[in-house]
Amino acid sequence: MHVVKKIEIIANSFELAKILDSLDKSGVHNHAVIRNVAGKGLQGTTEDLDMTMLDNVYILAFCMPEQLKGVVENIKPLLNKFGGTCYVSDVMEIRSVRCVASM
């Protein structure tokens, strides 16, 4: 087990390609994207996806702690320009080297 940084980004789907490109430029090449995300923000407004032209996406990625500075430098300008939010937390990664089927 070892500590990694979990990066969670919620943004407009229109900016997905730019965000994924920024993560890639930062050395973060693996990610998961969940589309059609809705919720209630800090401002107290709820966004109805049926009433909007552009849906939100949730991007989940992980990086080594030493990569985080580059990620923030690349993602922050996009979020400031186009909107969205990013959360970073410490998590433990467990790498499995045995096939589950062989247990």
SS content category: alpha+beta
What is the approximate shape? globular
Q: Strand share of the residues?
A: 25-35%
Q: Would you report the number of β strands?
A: 4
| Separate helix tally | 2
What's the rounded overall pLDDT mean? 85
The low-confidence parts are none
Sequence of strands across the biggest β-sheet: 2-3-1-4
Give me the Rg, rounded.
16 Å
Distance between the termini: 20 Å
* Helix and strand element order: EHEEHE
**Percent helix:** 10-25%
Largest sheet: 4 strands, antiparallel
Structural overview:
It is globular, with a radius of gyration of 16 Å. A 4-stranded antiparallel β-sheet has the order 2-3-1-4, covered by helices on one side. Helix content is 24%, strand content 34%. By secondary structure, the chain is α+β, with helices and mostly antiparallel strands. It has helices spanning 16-25, 68-82, and strands at 2-12, 31-37, 56-63, 85-93.
Keywords summarizing the entry:
103 residues, alpha+beta, 4 strands, globular
